[in-house]
Amino acid sequence: MLVVKHEFQDKYSGKVIKVGTILEIEDENRKKDLLSRQLIVEADVLVLKQDDQEEESELTVKEIKLMLEEKGIEYTPRDNKAKLLQLLKGDS
């Protein structure tokens, strides 16, 4: 899993990529470039700060579900974002 460590503007799309965003990069040269510039990091697990609800709210439901799947945590398709975040933090 690739996670944004420092906010940056993507040179191809022009979009600002925020800290904590999970990226999928197929282009190995692009991946190496971003890693070497320390804009992204490879992570097995993304840790959410418990007191920083703003960062949590920036995660999309899709990103949260991906993180749950990587940890092997089950959820239902009807679970809302708040429930998914509880599962991710282990507060079930």
Please give the largest β-sheet. Answer: 3 strands, antiparallel
Mean pLDDT level: 83
The proportion of residues forming helix, as a percent range, comes to: 25-40%
Distance between the termini: 24 Å
**Lateral arrangement of strands in the main beta sheet:** 4-1-5
What is the succession of H and E elements? EEEEHEHHH
General shape: elongated
Count of strand segments: 5
The figure for the number of domains is: 2
As a whole number of angstroms, the C-alpha radius of gyration is 14 Å
Strand content: 5-15%
Q: How does the helix and strand content classify structurally?
A: alpha+beta
Number of helices: 4
Instruction: Give the uncertain stretches in residue-range form.
Output: none
Structure description:
There is one protein chain. The chain is 38% helix and 13% strand. The protein is α+β, with helices and mostly antiparallel strands and 92 residues long. It has helices at residues 28-36, 53-58, 61-71, 81-89; strands spanning 2-4, 8-9, 16-17, 22-23, 40-42. The strands form two sheets. It has a three-stranded antiparallel beta sheet with strand order 4-1-5, covered by helices on one side. The longest helix is centred in the C-terminal third of the chain and has 11 residues, at 61-71. Strand 2 (8-9) and strand 3 (16-17) form a beta hairpin. The chain is built from four helices and five strands. It folds into two domains: 1-44; 48-92.
